[in-house]
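Example record used in the benchmark description.
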Amino acid sequence: MEPFRMLDGLVTLLDLPNVDTDQIIPKQFLKRIERTGFGQFLFYDWRFLADGRPNPDFELNAERYRGATILVTRANFGCGSSREHAPWALLDYGFRCLIAPSFADIFYSNCLKNGILPIRLDEEQVDAIVQRVRSTAGCRLRVDLNNKTITSGDGPAYRFDLDEFRRQCLLNGLDDIGLTLQHEDRISRYEASRALQPAR
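Model output (structure tokens):
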């Protein structure tokens, strides 16, 4: 997993509450066995028209948001089924950070395990960021995980909270497998000792 320490990224918006995982990555695209390649299907039913052309009315399709790495959205993002494909699709599309008033619990955990930083801010703070992004072409934010702050060039700064264990995992790029491999020597010694024990 790629470490997350500092992100200076272009910001885009999905100004909708209760976006569920089937909207993030529709079920017909869950047949892939790899973790990659899902980005092209992100928000598919909203991003594309019935004939496959990009939907000009869907805000994320605007040219000004091309290459965005920070997504600002609304409450209860990632609700619905617990499919891990949702953060895979967001990450593959290019998002490393999500900002919202709240997230569904399993989705929140899955994001952290896949190298995406989900940040909870108050509704009023999210409102202020949405207004700033809408009024400022090319709006960027700097997300500093070391200091747990969000800043912009001439705008307000925000502080956010994150469980310290999860923060350290992100800073060091450690997913569940990486955490286990930190104890590889002890695991190997244990396995070797088990092999020497007589069979029962």
